Amino acid sequence: MLKATLRSFLAHKGRLLLSALAVLLSVAFVAGSLIFSDTVSRTFDRLFASTAADVTVSPKEGLDEAVPSGRTATLPAALAERVRRVDGVAAARAEVDVNGLTVVDENNEPVGPTTGAPTLGNAWNPNERSPVELTSGHAPRGPGQALLDSETADRRDVRIGDTLTVIAPPGSFEVRVVGIVTFTTTNPGAALVFLDPSTARTKLLGDPRAATGIAVDAAEGVGDEQLKRRVAAALGAHTYDFRTADEQAESDVEQLGGFLDVIKYVMLGFAGIAVLVGVFLIVNTFSMLIAQRTRELGLLRALGADRRQVRRSVLTEALLLGLVGSTLGLAAGIGLAAGLIELMGLLGMNIDADEMVIGWVTPVAAYVVGLGVTFVAAYLPARRAAGVSPMAALSDAEVAGVGRPLRVRAVTGAVVGAAGAAALVGCAVSERTASAASLLGLGVVLTLIATVIAGPLLVRPVIRVLGGAFPALFGSIGRMSQRNALRNPRRTGATAAALMVGLALVGGMSVASESMTASFDRQIDRTLGADFVIQNTNFLPFPKEVTDAVRDTEGVGLVVRGRFTPVAVRLPDGDRVETTAAGYDPRLDEVANITYTQGDSAAALADGRLAMDRDFARDHGVRVGGTVPVEFQGGRSAELTVGALTDQDSAEGFGTQGGLYFGLGTLERYAPGGQDSALYVNAAPGTSDDELRARLEATLDPYPQVQVRDLADYKQLVHDQITVLLYLVYALLGLAIIIAVLGVVNTLALSVVERTREIGLLRAIGLARRQLRRMIRLESVVIAVFGAVLGLALGLVWGLCTQQVLALQGMTALAIPWVTIVAVVIGSAVIGVVAALLPALRASRMNVLAAIAHE
């Protein structure tokens, strides 16, 4: 049996190649994502471990900034002197590290990265742990001198002697580049500007007595934990945060972890789609191969092989296929990881591909996925093969399921489909976002399974409609192509299911994204009353001088400032909610249209008061006039009175949890030092919008990071952000389509082999090669369009339910992208034509007499 199995596998290796490609793609994405994330993690672990001080003293913050506030947390630089006197301290340095700078050259062009990486301003404190070293020029020696990292200098053609303008939180200032520093470790993609310590404190922090942290080096023989305890005792254990080198490195890795997790989960998403679609391909391939080997299997049974041996033989072939696909997929995954590392290099993150990390988890995961997918996919065909009786096989009966009743499928599909439909209905009527989202996920999984199970039941009624025009358009060729697609509903359903999965995903996401876009458009139209909004391109806050320049611009009538700050609110029901709150100037009503259910803007923005979303307030037992304890960044807290309740659909809380906002006076009192994130500007009487826009753009020319946006620009900004999410979905669709095309090609190729004698007879009675190719192409088109119709129908249902979940968050508009849907159906027909090219060409080249004599 083993010899027979190996010979059978090698005899059909050409037919199994396309199935192996599906396994290869699945494994490649799993292995590539693990190798890439492990390599980047190891690289940054070494970077942070080698650059972290033995002990780091930092300001105690406590709240994470989901939205940047522009506030830089500081502590007294004089603490360094106190730390130096602690027993066991070899050295202590007051550090300055400021994120979110903008640096421009003499032509007012940005010098920093354009890939989203930050531009950092630092104090020049060279030591053995520095990630950079001075390679040309000299150290900065005054307020007008700076160092720049070599990669930024090369990328932007900056040389020693050039003048740069640094736009920092306290304001802008010019520096002359007097030296170039080169990274001695991995460059995380940031641009680095170094100033002398005194200038860094004054220009970057706005306070010559402040620092962002104290770096402490231990004397020989003193452990980090021991030194940490001593420094904490000297400064007050509850006054600042104290971390050892290992703890600081771990904290830095956690901050980077979000970025790495996004890449890892995206790639694992690709792997999941590849696995899901690949299962259908492998099931179909083995089902058809077993159908074609009916006589062979019958002979084995007649010679004494029992059912277990036949089943084991088929599963062994599947495992061999999985072994080959997994091995090739692991190699492809290594190549994919290397490509990602090169891509990161183009984006400014330099990772050494020679130090690629391939841990034991990667090959184990690769082979578990590859072998698991093929084993699971081949199990049902193997059971069918084991059920072949010697007499049935010797009489050429098929085991592919042709003509077998579909009652079991009908019952199972109906039960699973009813459960899925009930979950989706529950999602649509639910009034709580969390439960609605859970029901949506359950409903999507169950309806997908039900559609796959019941797909063969839909083949005959749907394809009769889809291919109904074929006889009229293509005559007898069209009729035969339609009947070929109807001949084996199980095979047609499984082939179309591969395409259906991808198109259901894109259909659902298209409806959701189109609805989100329409909802945001409606909300912007309804709430934004300003002529223009001034914002940073990357939504980072900007310095006060930008606000002053806008106010001084001719034709400006009103400027309302908007800021953000992290807060934690303790609510009457005992919950503590961390969220982002906003602060606004008093004349908010003139630039925004807010619907209040209780109170008004005057009450919301009054000193010591705040506004809150009505649903959030109701859920947590908050009433107008009640007080809530609010914790601010930096340790300050206050008891604020609820002055107004808003309708979140039209509130200015920008969708943050709770919709909290208050007056800028309140914000300045409890969280001073923040920066404006947005300016809402109205034109003065007698000034047209076009005139004001031109003047504002001229005013903001020295600040290339700041943009002037009107209503249409603001909508486009939202559209672009949603489009980025869609690109990911379309990429997943592309992968699904690639594997689905492989499935259609494989099905048609095996179908041609299965129908070799039939094709020979058709050719013998006068069917031309061109007609034969057309028949196979039409069969492929109708199968592909069938998959598209099922996928889009399922996707539309998912999209409608997703929109109901979004409606609970205030995005109530429903929009269906009919253009996308029509384009997908047309594209599916094109896919069908492309997938049929090789099988049709092969069929047309058959020798007629050899085909007739084929058994």
Automatic annotation (TrEMBL):
The chain crosses the membrane at residues 265-291, 318-340, 360-382, 439-459, 465-481, 493-512, 724-753, 778-798, 818-838. It is a multi-pass membrane protein. Residues 270-390, 732-848 form the ABC3 transporter permease C-terminal domain. Pfam families: FtsX, MacB_PCD. It is found in: Cell membrane. It comes from the Bacteria. Residues 105-151 are annotated as: Disordered. InterPro entries: ABC3_permease_C, MacB_PCD, Macrolide_Exporter_MacB. Keywords: Cell membrane, Membrane, Transmembrane, Transmembrane helix. Residues 17-233, 492-698 form the MacB-like periplasmic core domain. Its main location: membrane. Belongs to the ABC-4 integral membrane protein family. This is FtsX-like permease family protein. It comes from Streptomyces olindensis.
